[in-house]
Amino acid sequence: MMFAKFHTKSGDKIKYHKRSSVWPGIKFAEPINEPFIGWIIRNCKKIDFWRDTWATSIPLRECIDLPNHLWKLCKTKVSDFINPDGWNFPTDISLALMAMGINISSITCSPNLDNLQIWQPDIHGNFFIKNAFESTRTRLGTAWWWKYTWLQCLHPGLSGFAWILMNKILPTDDLIQRKGIPLVFICNQCGLTGESAHHLFSECNKAKVLWSWATSTFNIAAADENGLKQILDKCTTLSLYLNDLWITMVFSVSRWMWNARNKTRIDETKLTIRDIQNRVLREVENNAKLPKHGMYNTVSELQIAKALFVDCKLGKALVIKRCMWLLPNENEIKLCYDSSALRNLGPSGIRIVYRD
């Protein structure tokens, strides 16, 4: 009934104005939802042969270029090509379907049952508002930094600051000026140039000293100015436990540089580099209780844990067991698989070595 009210007899949307409070919404939503609506083929009495998505993911009308006045004459239903034994297509229609890549014999029909219209994104074919919204909404690209800001090793307060930092919405002076508020600004940490997020966290003399201290604590190369992603990925070669601590330190150093800036500007008190380092170490020590990963049993990682004043989460020690390998008997082949195979692929595949 709703379809007949807003469509012509030929199945096209009406072109004239209809006084209705719902028509603008229907006119907007119909082309968005149409690709997600399908049919379970049965007797096909209600399925339009040309305009409904019954054989492919798009209507057959979109595959054929015909003038609009000729489409008004095309009122065929799919049921017109069904007899009690199944499909009954004329030769020319069968050839046209084959040319469009449709194998009609692979589509089953049940002439004694009614059709069932389904919502294709749902596994059961049911239409729900939530499912429709998730299927049709416009999605933005996933931010690369989400996996760093919502780690279990970060306290919610530090994680919230990391989210603000990565979204570049900290109210630095240059950002406030870009919003149309004129002001004269200068970095109150070094007093050499204007304040910006890049200068405050990368170029400022105090920032360079703190990043040099952080990288030397983890025995890694000095931080460059290529961006936060390169800094956050510097400890991927270490254990998961120390990698979590490094990410915590990166955000903690940034947070306390921002707090030092605010204290100088608002409270007129200055935090020295030693004060910031002590606060960062205290925050890293508190967050070190959150990760569940272990660390490698190496001297370098033990030295890093000692420098950070955190607990050592040692992994299980390697147990070496004695085994004996006997040569295969005559007409026998030995199969070495899993960990005993040469260059084992691990979870990505299986490798077998044959030994005679």
Automatic annotation (TrEMBL):
It holds the Pfam family zf-RVT. It comes from the Eukaryota. InterPro entries: RVT-Znf (IPR026960). Residues 127-211 form the Reverse transcriptase zinc-binding domain. This is Reverse transcriptase zinc-binding domain-containing protein. The lineage of its organism: Eukaryota, Viridiplantae, Streptophyta, Embryophyta, Tracheophyta.
